[in-house]
């Protein structure tokens, strides 16, 4: 599949106020779904429009990228104030753009740091300003308002506009990367038949509670799945051999998700104490919350947010980071909803505060598709962070190569952005001796049928990876000798434990019948992998004494700090025992086998970098101080 390369013009403050009679199209401003959408007729001229016009950084995105790469190599970073002084769009640019928009009859509000200009008004004014016809459409189960073609801007300001969001009202949402074995907002408890360490309980040592006889799988006796690894188990396995005193002290890890659990700090403290760790010290955990939370088109859109469903994501992120970096500060940045734009706003707060030096993000879209407006804004945010010494990590997703969802192998965005580190998933055996087995996470589900295990879900889930269909391979990938078949960005970069069969035990206040109460359960997904990696990176930042900025150039130049995952030392799968109702034994038990390293996708495990686990999982070598 061909790779689409988006070109962004360089922008300076000079010359933008000069008038020009011929408008120029704004790249990628025509909705991508127009070819299969149904035009329902022109929108009412008096209908309302609310849009955001994104402005290029001063000097253009190419200059900002060069600065980010140089800063990440030298570790000479800017403060937020220095960044804004150098890279904010100039006053002349903002004035010219504002004049163009207000002159068409739109009301203008300029972002304090000149990242964008918000406009509101009616359809008539928007049509005039952007040279479009805004119509009503039906597509993909949605009724939206959108332009019938590309928007344009006067030639004098066109190079200053990198994208427009809002003319197309299609809801763009992201999803958490957790794999919890029940509806995400419902309470769940582990059944008590499980292993404390990997493989330490089998049907021979711990019979099933209802007398069900569990057969072998293809002639092999399998152990019960772990109950869920605790913080000390994960930390001792991955960080074995680390220098004394590395615990994340003095480093702040940022976590982004939609919404905010009211019980998160109490839950994390209770969980830490229960599992042998220390609770947060006073001030060690903090939050940055929006003024208000919103739901997304709850009445007329299939693309909705489930606020309570995000609480499990937040719980996993906070408890996993605290497990790996118990002395690090954690600052949680909540998005007002699960819309792309609201999660993007969390990066603005992170970058402008300049408190955190590593950011973990356990969410993303499905496939390579991302609104072009948001793609340019995302890249600007990641590069601002890099210039300031802030590193961004993203979960790569839980649907393997996404072919089952979108019809062709794809990666997920934002993990596929070249300026973030995409963290994929492994199935991991942890014993008192450490990590004793590790392979790629791709699962086939087997259930009991006539006394044997029968494959009922050929591909249930697995860590995201592969090659982007619309983002070109970055220079660091090429230099490392990784040549993608389509010239696209390769994922994952690295991997950590993610398989829910070998996942983490978390403690959370959940909604149970009749009440809400705290309980523990096992959870997985690349939502686990990203905060595990971010917690370890906090230790590397502590050892280095400074932030790191872009991580990938250093990882690809020298991946020796990562354990090459080849699939050795682990069984074919584990036996899962669950309550039928997810709560208790009143309705009985259900038995299944979840396999490891299924080969039902295009992703494969191999020596060196591979499309299923990247360079492998972080070990003590990753914690070596950067110069």
Walk me through the structure:
This protein is of the alpha+beta class. The chain has 2 domains: 23-170, no CATH class; 186-623, Peptidase S8/S53 domain (Rossmann fold, 3-Layer(aba) Sandwich), CATH 3.40.50. Helices cover 24% and strands 26% of the residues. Strands 11, 12, 13, 14, 16, 17, 18 and 23 form an 8-stranded mixed β-sheet that branches. Residues 1-20 have low confidence and may be disordered.
Q: Can you tell me the CATH class of the largest domain?
A: Alpha Beta
Morphology: globular
Q: Determine the number of helices (DSSP H or I, runs of at least 4 residues).
A: 14
Major sheet, described briefly?
Answer: 8 strands, mixed
Second-tier CATH architecture of the largest domain: 3-Layer(aba) Sandwich
Question: What proportion of the residues is helical, as a percent range?
Answer: 10-25%
Q: Which range does the strand content fall in? A: 25-35%
How many structural domains are formed by the residues?
Answer: 2
Secondary structure class reads: alpha+beta
CATH superfamily of the largest domain: Peptidase S8/S53 domain
Radius of gyration: 25 Å
Low-pLDDT parts are 1-20
* Termini gap: 40 Å
Summed over residues and divided by their number, the pLDDT gives a mean of: 92
**What's the total count of β strands?**
29
Indicate the CATH topology of the largest domain.
Answer: Rossmann fold
């Amino acid at each position: 599949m061909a790779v689409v390369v988006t070109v962004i013009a360089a922008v300076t403050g000079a010359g933008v106020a000069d008038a020009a009679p011929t408008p120029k199209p704004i790249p990628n401003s025509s909705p991508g779904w127009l070819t299969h959408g149904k035009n329902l007729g022109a929108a009412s001229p008096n209908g309302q429009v609310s849009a955001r016009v994104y402005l290029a950084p001063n000097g253009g995105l190419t200059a900002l990228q060069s600065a980010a790469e140089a800063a990440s190599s030298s570790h000479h970073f800017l403060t937020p104030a220095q960044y804004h002084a150098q890279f904010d769009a100039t006053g002349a640019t903002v004035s010219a753009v504002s004049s163009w928009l207000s002159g068409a009859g739109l009301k203008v509000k300029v972002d304090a740091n000149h990242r964008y200009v918000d406009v509101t008004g009616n359809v008539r004014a928007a049509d005039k300003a952007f040279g479009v016809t805004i119509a009503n459409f039906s597509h993909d189960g949605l009724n939206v308002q959108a332009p019938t073609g590309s928007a344009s801007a006067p030639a004098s300001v066109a190079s200053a506009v990198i994208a427009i969001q809002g003319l197309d009202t299609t809801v763009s949402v992201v999803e958490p990367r957790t794999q919890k074995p029940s509806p995400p907002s419902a309470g769940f408890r582990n059944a008590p038949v499980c292993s404390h360490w990997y493989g330490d309980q089998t049907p021979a040592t711990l019979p099933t509670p209802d007398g069900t006889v569990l057969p072998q799988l293809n002639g092999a006796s399998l152990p019960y799945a772990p109950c869920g690894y605790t913080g000390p188990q994960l930390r001792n396995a991955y960080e074995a051999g680390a220098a004394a005193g590395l615990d994340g002290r003095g480093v702040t890890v940022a976590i982004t998700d939609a919404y905010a659990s009211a019980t998160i700090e109490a839950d994390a403290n209770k969980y830490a104490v229960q599992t042998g760790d220390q609770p947060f010290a006073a001030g060690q955990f903090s939050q940055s919350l929006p003024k208000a939370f919103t739901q997304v088109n709850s009445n007329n859109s299939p693309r909705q947010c489930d606020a309570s469903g995000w609480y499990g994501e937040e719980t996993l992120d906070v408890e996993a980071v605290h497990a790996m970096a118990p002395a690090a500060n954690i600052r949680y940045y909540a998005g007002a909803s699960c819309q792309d734009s609201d999660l993007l706003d969390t990066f603005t707060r992170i970058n402008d505060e300049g408190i955190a030096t590593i950011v973990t993000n356990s969410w993303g879209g499905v496939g390579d598709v991302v609104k072009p407006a948001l793609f340019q804004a995302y890249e600007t945010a990641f590069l601002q962070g890099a210039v300031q010494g802030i590193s961004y990590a993203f979960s790569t997703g839980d649907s393997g190569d996404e072919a089952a969802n979108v019809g062709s192998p794809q990666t997920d965005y934002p993990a596929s952005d070249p300026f973030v580190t995409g963290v994929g998933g492994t199935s991991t055996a942890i014993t008192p001796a450490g990590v004793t087995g590790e392979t790629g996470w791709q699962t086939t589900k087997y259930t009991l049928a006539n006394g044997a295990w029968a494959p009922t879900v050929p591909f249930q889930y697995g860590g995201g990876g592969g090659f982007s269909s619309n983002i070109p391979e970055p220079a660091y990938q090429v230099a490392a000798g990784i040549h993608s078949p389509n010239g696209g960005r390769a994922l994952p970069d690295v991997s950590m434990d993610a398989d829910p069969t070998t996942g983490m035990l978390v403690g959370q206040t959940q909604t149970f019948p009749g009440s809400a109460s705290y309980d523990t359960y096992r959870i997985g997904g690349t939502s686990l992998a990203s905060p595990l990696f971010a917690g370890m990176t906090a230790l590397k930042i502590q050892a280095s004494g400074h932030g790191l900025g872009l991580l990938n150039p250093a990882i690809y130049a020298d991946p020796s700090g990562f354990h090459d995952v080849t699939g050795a030392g682990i069984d074919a799968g584990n036996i899962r025992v669950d309550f039928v109702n997810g709560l208790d034994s009143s309705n009985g038990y259900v038995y299944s086998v979840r396999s490891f390293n299924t080969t039902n996708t295009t992703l494969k495990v191999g020596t060196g970098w591979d499309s299923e686990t990247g360079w492998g999982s972080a070990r003590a070598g990753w914690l070596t101080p950067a110069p």
